[in-house]
Design a protein that fits this description.
Elements (H helix, E strand, L loop, with lengths): L1 E4 L11 H9 L2 E4 L2 H10 L6 E3 L5 H13 L4 E4 L12 H9 L4 E4 L4 H9 L6 E5 L5 H11 L5 E6 L4 H12 L3 E6 L7 E6 H7 L7 E5 L10 H14 L4 H12 L3 H13 L1
Parallel strand pairs: 1-4, 1-5, 2-3, 2-4, 6-7
Antiparallel strand pairs: 7-10, 8-9, 8-10
Bound molecules: S-adenosylmethionine.
The site of S-adenosylmethionine has 23 residues, from helix 5, strand 7 and strand 10.
């Protein structure tokens, strides 16, 4: 069995009873950083042998671990913090294990993205985890452009020294949407900063600590050709069963304009 074990993202009390038991009972713990994990294990009086398993050595280590898994041993994967395989090593090992017919089991617990989302006050019914963006400028821009039309809430990770620049990139690609910076989650200086992207960029002069960036999704309809779009939207509402007046009222809410403007746009459309 291959266990994917969550560890705290700051507060040690977020370690679960099950995580402690699974780590104690495992034959081997594959850890992103053995020095860091050893401290955690010492705190919880766990004495299981450790092997390093980071992105650089994952293929080689997977080759060592796999025969042991196939022979029936239990291996637990942990990362430095939170869920392994979420912007952390572990996913490769999961794939290798599945291909070899080894069972994989989650031991859930702390995760920065979801902890930020649930306290963001933004829509939690649909969200997308975008994690860290690629480093290359063009790849970042292209990805942000593709993400800009997503209507679900979007969650990013970013290092503090790149945060200001990242917020500027977000404003360029998304416009000035509402967002939340979740800082130092579960730690002493935990903080939630709320506002539009540009307000947040002004609020944080020298960002310190760890951040999750939660950004409101795109409004469901983009007004590129306002007149045409408004007519289409009103038609859609009517097709959904609304009368014309209600359809215009809903369209006005959606585009954040007055009903008079919707009316004028429809007249313009009809007379074109
Ligand atoms: N596997 C982890 C998880 O499940 O959340 C994520 C690890 S990723 C390498 C590290 C990034 O997660 C940080 O740069 C930051 O964006 C976010 N993060 C981790 N811990 C955090 C915390 N306590 N507060 C805010 N963000 C955190």
């Amino acid at each position: 069995m291959l266990y994917l074990v969550a560890t705290p993202i700051g507060n040690l009390e977020d370690m679960t009873f099950r995580a402690i038991r699974v780590l104690r009972e495992a034959d081997l713990i594959a850890a992103e950083d053995t020095r860091r994990t050893r401290k955690l294990l010492t705190h919880f009086d766990i004495h299981t042998p450790l092997i390093r398993f980071d992105e650089n050595c994952s293929a080689a280590v997977a080759e060592k671990i796999l025969p042991r898994l196939i022979a029936g041993e239990t291996v637990a994967v942990v990362s430095d913090a939170g869920l392994p395989a979420i912007s952390d090593p572990g996913a490769d090992l999961v794939r290798v294990a599945i291909d070899a017919g080894v069972a994989v089991c989650p031991v859930p617990g702390a995760n920065a993205a979801l902890s930020a989302l649930i306290c963001s006050g933004l829509d939690t019914s649909r969200f997308m985890f975008a994690g860290f963006l690629p480093r290359a400028k063009k790849n970042r821009r292209d990805l942000l452009q593709r993400l800009s039309t997503i209507t679900a809430t979007i969650i990013f990770y970013e290092a503090p020294h790149r945060l200001k620049n990242f917020l500027a990139e977000l404003v360029d690609a998304f416009g000035d949407r509402r967002a939340v910076l979740a800082r130092e989650l579960t730690k002493l200086h935990e903080e939630f900063l709320r506002g539009t992207l540009s307000e947040l960029a002004e609020k944080i002069s020298e960002p310190r600590g760890e951040f999750v960036i939660v950004v409101e999704g795109a409004t469901s309809i983009k007004i590129s050709e306002p007149t045409e779009d408004i007519a289409t939207v009103v038609e859609k509402f009517i097709a959904d069963g609304l009368d014309k007046k209600s359809a215009m009222r809903e369209a006005a809410k959606l585009f954040n304009v007055s009903r008079r403007e919707i009316y004028n746009a429809l007249i313009r459309e009809e007379t074109q």
